[in-house]
Amino acid sequence: MDLKQLEYFVRVAELGSFTRASHALGVVQPALSRQIRALEVELRQHLLLRNGRGAVPTEAGKVLLAHARGILHQVARAREELGRVRGALAGRVAIGLPPSLARTLAVPLTRAFRRALPEATLSIGEGLTVAMLEALVQGHLDLVLAYNPPALADVTFEPLFDEALVLVQRRTPGLAEDPPLPLTLREVAALPLVIPSRPNALRVQVDAAMAALGCKPRIELEIDGVAAILELVADGVGAAILSPHAVAASPHAATLAARPIVEPALHAHVALATCDRRPATLTQQAAADVIRQLCRQRFGAPPAARPPTPAMAPAAPPR
């Protein structure tokens, strides 16, 4: 067997489809199938079970998948070590960012990454925390900035910063630019809200906090996706509970007003997630350092470590 066959096999097994793997690898599907078949013939075992929904590893395939991931990782590490010999770290690092943070951090992160790792390749993806953590575990992402992450096996969460959630409303025309007055959470409960549907963690957090006060949110509309929520708020449909970064990054920011929420305040916790199944390469470790330094510069010192959200709870507000 050769490295190309292992890489093809791993990609098909992880994506669960020859078609998706063909697109991801940039290889025509017949050639991909031939390489996988050659690997099966050499090992005298069926590695993938084809069905109408795609392809899943057989028991033998699961064994090989664990070994193949390790082999490919060690090859990447060897290439990095050779790069160090000639004075540079190389390789690809895939980082997942929530959309609101992507708008805030993507440009400075790219600049800092290029300064620190000029011979490495950076890939930035956007998504909700739950989906990005799944991609992290599956090996599609190397590092993830996660909002209110749930407890997950094989994933380590390092606190980066906290941010207070705010009530976002359409700005009243002609309203003076005075500091916005805070609202109690009980007052927020009386307002029509545009909010994600359950089991989104922001929704769960709001429901639980209001229930502790003996009230519940007044839901005007349930919708997932920060951009859509902010558009509806700007259109006057209702108010929203979001992070200040989501508001600042919105094209509707000039028409929106953010008010602090008190008694009690609501906070989003942002953590750096890494997968314990695959030891970080030197380039990934350096990229994580870049993220830590950038977040410290922009948001201050990281908070004390806290246990992640229980696994039964959903993972994150939309960003």
UniProtKB/TrEMBL annotation:
Origin: domain of life: Bacteria
Organism annotation: Tepidimonas sediminis
Family indicated by similarity: Belongs to the LysR transcriptional regulatory family.
Pro residues bias: start-end ranges: 304-319
Domain HTH lysR-type: 1-58
Protein name: HTH-type transcriptional regulator CynR
SUPFAM superfamilies: Periplasmic binding protein-like II, Winged helix' DNA-binding domain
PANTHER family membership: NITROGEN ASSIMILATION REGULATORY PROTEIN NAC (PTHR30293:SF0), TRANSCRIPTIONAL REGULATORY PROTEIN NAC-RELATED (PTHR30293)
Keyword annotations of the record: Activator, DNA-binding, Transcription, Transcription regulation
GO BP annotations, alphabetical order: regulation of DNA-templated transcription initiation
Keyword Transcription included in the entry's annotation: yes
GO molecular function ontology, one term from the record: DNA-binding transcription factor activity
Spans annotated as Disordered: 300-319
InterPro entries (UniProt xref): LysR_HTH_N, LysR_subst-bd, WH-like_DNA-bd_sf, WH_DNA-bd_sf
